[in-house]
Amino acid sequence: MDAQLGKWKVVKEETTGLDEFLTKLGLPKEAQAAYKDLDYTIETSKDGDSFKSVVNITGRDPLVYTWKLGEAFEYQSLDGTKPMLTVTEEGDTVVESYTLEKFNRQWKCVRKVDGDAMTATTSCEDVSMVQKLKRV
Question: Which is deepest, 28, 47, 67, 75, by most CB within 10 Å?
Answer without folding.
Answer: 75
